[in-house]
Each structure stands twice: as C-alpha cells, then as structure tokens.
C-alpha cells in the first residue's frame, strides 16, 4: 500500500497545484484558491489507520508485528484500556492527551508517514471506550478490523463492522489472527464468510 499511496499522493498534489494555478489565472475566487491550497497542504498529513476488533483478538499483537517491536502491550487479560494514538518520535514516550486517549511516540520509521490508532475492544465493558473508538473511526483513512480465528463470530464485532461500512463508509482491511490454532479447512470457512 505504501508505494501506491505515495505515488497517488504525489500525482494528486501535482494536479491540485496545477488546478490552483488555473483558478488564479482565470480569476477564481480567493475562497476557491484557499480550498485548493488547504487540500494540497492536507496531502502531507500522515495516513491514519484505526485498528478495531473485540477484546483480546490480537489487535496489539498485530501492531507489534507491524512495528517490528513490542510498542503495544499484550496479554491474556485486556491490556488496551485507552485509545493509543501511535506517532513517530525519536524515543518511546507516552503522552496523556485525555483520561481516555494517550499519544504514543515510538522510533518506528513506518510512523513518519502513517499514524496508527489502537482502540479498546468493540465489546469492552466500558461504554466510554466504545464512544471514543467511534470518534476516531470516521476520521480514519483505513480501518483495520482484527478478528480471532478462535471466535470470529462475536456479535459486537459484526455490529460494529456494519456501522463502519454503512454509516461511516470507511475502507476496511480484515486481519485474521491466531490462524495457527485452526485447521486449514476451518480457516477457509471463516475466510469465505
């Protein structure tokens, strides 16, 4: 996704720059020029991935594999009790933004161009967690929906997926964790579903 994204971003930036020049040359309004300049500037904003799924399906494990380091806590008990907003930084540092959101700066070059939001589970017992997660998803460029091969049928995950798809119309990538704990035939049934 990286190369295609950067190529598209470069082409879009070039086209928007040319369009802004045409608007200026032909007497377009300052508001139109400002809109185009804001769009050009926004192309430099990092791409935002929001990772969602039920409690203990392997969201943090997936992120650690993506980062190539253990920056996200994992465990048998639910460990992500806040929304964690991962950004690039020279050293690992957690900065509380609110009682329910932490910004986590980590030395991962991937995060120079992509920001990752790790959310509590869709079936968290804390209703506030769900509300906070729902504030981040509409702003996502891409939602990564993590399911466990051990129990991919959790109702809260499918209800939340329906909302992501129908209400917010976000692009979704599915990640199926713990596939090694199921037979290939079972994985095929889950994947087909």
Summarize the entry for a quick read.
The chain is an alpha/beta fold.
Global mean pLDDT: 82
Written as H for each helix and E for each strand, in order along the chain, the element string is: HHEHEEEEHEHEH
Query: Structural class, judged by helices and strands?
Result: alpha/beta
Largest sheet data: 7 strands, mixed
Strand order of the largest sheet: 3-4-2-5-1-6-7
User: What overall form do the CA principal axes indicate?
Assistant: globular
Total number of helical segments? 6
Say how many strands there are: 7
Q: Cα distance, first to last residue?
A: 24 Å
**Radius of gyration of CA atoms, rounded to a whole number:** 19 Å
What fraction of residues sit in β-strands?
Answer: 15-25%
- Unreliable residue stretches: 75-79
Helix percent reads 40-55%
List key phrases describing it:
40% helix, 193 residues, single chain, alpha/beta, 7-stranded mixed β-sheet, 6 helices
Can you lay out the helices and strands and say which pair or pack?
Elements: H1 2-25, H2 30-42, E1 47-52, H3 59-67, E2 83-88, E3 93-98, E4 101-106, E5 114-118, H4 127-136, E6 142-148, H5 155-167, E7 172-177, H6 184-192
Parallel strand pairs: 1-5, 1-6, 2-4, 6-7
Antiparallel strand pairs: 2-5, 3-4
What would you say this structure looks like, in words?
- This protein has 193 residues and is an alpha/beta fold.
- 40% of the residues lie in helices and 22% in strands.
- It has 6 helices and 7 strands; from the N terminus they run H-H-E-H-E-E-E-E-H-E-H-E-H.
- A 7-stranded mixed beta sheet has the order 3-4-2-5-1-6-7, sandwiched between helices.
- Helix 1 (2-25) runs antiparallel to helix 2.
- The radius of gyration is 19 Å and the shape is globular.
- The two termini are 24 Å apart.
